[in-house]
Design a protein that fits this description.
The chain contains 13 helices and 11 strands. By secondary structure, the protein is of the alpha/beta class. The chain has one domain. A 7-stranded mixed sheet has the order 1-10-7-2-5-3-4, sandwiched between helices. Strands 6-11 form a two-stranded parallel sheet. Helix 8 links the parallel strand 3 and strand 4. Helix 1 packs across helix 5 and helix 2 packs across helix 3. The longest helix has 22 residues. The chain starts with 11 loop residues before the first helix and ends with a strand.
């Protein structure tokens, strides 16, 4: 394989953008493990009492990820996130007003490998805040991450909360509105389909978010992130292959998927874990009004789910030509 090295005369700003993305990759892939390792060192070392104090804090604070988290405007506004968004770049596209007097449930599609668009738009300021004043976004992620010492404090500071039913209910139960739950509907399973050009969404059997929207009267908003699947390449893993079978079994055991992905490096473009510089356009669709129903029937859930799929498909079709999707390609629901 011929290695393509980056030119020496690259502008400093682009170098800084690459470093910003590198630290995000480290945070996403290794920071949790690093924090757990540091905690073990504290326990086994001379500073064991600090670990004991933190365990006490963890016990007292255990429910916070399900109670709105603990966001930090300072962390969300770090300059590093500006360079992170500019690297791709990441754009948030508004198609309709979202009245801050209501609560919303935003369905984010597709998952991609590392959901860069969801993080850049909903966990850093000011993209969402500028376009939708009066609304506070909460990105729901797998509960397992909030069991990692120290790491949990970092992700909560960015506005991430648990994806548990209790957590979603807390966000959507805000009297007076102004809250937006952001849920990556396809989940970890969908990341295994995140190949360049893929338009397959795992959504046909995912109806829990519909039930939550009905129970709380939260308006549903489809969100499609064009370019999300173009950031990395994956080792071929078609359904039925031995690799896909292993990945799916591990996903069921651990709760998260392990896509074997690669892209470019820091100083060369041929291999590495740094995502490609591909633009991400996250398009926020029009809200689907939802009337509160504390005990929705299966038929009512299915009906709203079908309407959501219809609106999501319409959103995609209306914008696909703008963002380089061929006219003959359409979403595939599984």
């Amino acid at each position: 394989m011929k290695v393509e090295f980056a030119p020496i005369n690259i502008p400093l700003k682009r170098r800084i953008q690459t470093v910003a993305v590198l630290q995000w990759i480290f945070s996403f892939l290794l920071l949790a493990e690093f924090c757990c390792g540091f905690f073990v060192i504290l326990i086994l070392g001379n500073f064991w009492f600090l670990a004991v104090l933190y365990l006490l804090w963890l016990y007292l604070d255990w429910g916070t990820p399900c109670a709105g988290g603990r966001r930090s405007q300072w962390v969300r506004s770090w300059t590093v996130w500006k360079y992170f968004r500019e690297y791709f770049p990441i754009h948030l596209i508004k198609t309709s007003e979202l009245n801050p007097n209501h609560n919303y449930l935003l369905g984010f599609h597709p998952h991609g490998v590392l959901v860069a668009g969801a993080f850049g738009n909903f966990c850093t300021d000011p993209p969402f805040k500028n376009l939708f004043p009066g609304l506070t976004p909460y990105l729901h992620i797998m509960p397992i991450w909030f069991g990692c010492p120290f790491f949990r404090e970092y992700i909560m500071s960015a506005g991430m909360v648990s994806a548990s039913k209790e957590s979603v209910s807390h966000v959507l139960n805000n009297e007076g509105g102004g809250h937006a739950s952001v849920i990556v509907i396809g989940g970890a399973e969908e990341s295994l389909n995140a190949h360049p050009g893929s338009l397959t969404l795992n959504i046909l059997k995912r109806k829990g978010f519909i039930k939550m929207a009905l129970k709380h009267g939260a308006h549903l908003v489809p969100v499609f992130s064009f370019g999300e699947n173009e950031l990395f390449k994956q080792v071929a893993n078609p359904k039925g292959s031995w690799l896909r079978n292993v990945q799916e079994k591990l996903q069921k055991i651990m709760g998260f998927a392990l896509p074997l992905f690669h892209a470019r490096g820091v100083f060369q473009y041929s291999f590495g874990l740094i995502p490609y510089r591909q633009p991400i356009h996250t398009v926020v669709g029009s809200p689907i009004p939802v009337k509160q129903n504390l005990n929705p029937t299966t038929e009512e859930i299915d009906q709203l789910h079908a309407l959501y799929l219809q609106k999501l498909k319409k959103l995609f079709e209306e914008h696909k030509s703008t963002y380089g999707i061929p006219a003959h390609k359409s979403l595939i629901f599984e």
